[in-house]
Amino acid sequence: MSEQEEIKLFDRIRDNIANAQRMMLIRKAKLGETVVIADVDGQPVEISAEEALRFYDKK
Fold first, then answer.
1. How far apart are CA 32 and CA 51, in angstroms?
2. Residues 37, 44: contact at Cβ < 8 Å?
3. What is the model's pTM?
4. How far apart are CA 34 and CA 20, in angstroms?
5. CA-CA distance, 49 to 39, in Å (whole number)?
């Protein structure tokens, strides 16, 4: 596998992971569930999936 093919593969993997995370947040938001994220200090924080989706879409 050439270096360019590896780069394309890693880009595709990254994009698919991002899409899967977004779809999971959408599902959880529809169900009114929460998710756990890390704050700036690395401590776990529980927030609504709807809030997490808004944060995720800003990035």
1. 11
2. yes
3. 0.82
4. 17
5. 15
Q: How far apart are CA 35 and CA 13, in angstroms?
A: 23
Instruction: For residue range 26-44, list pLDDT tens digits in order.
Output: 999 999 999 999 999 999 9
Neighbouring residues of 48: CB distance < 8 A, sequence distance ≥ 6? 29, 32, 33, 34, 35
Give me 37's structure tokens.
Answer: 């994220």
First-to-last alpha carbon distance for the chain, in angstroms, is: 31
Rounded to whole angstroms, how far apart are CA atoms 46 and 33?
A: 10
Query: What is the residue type of 9?
Result: L
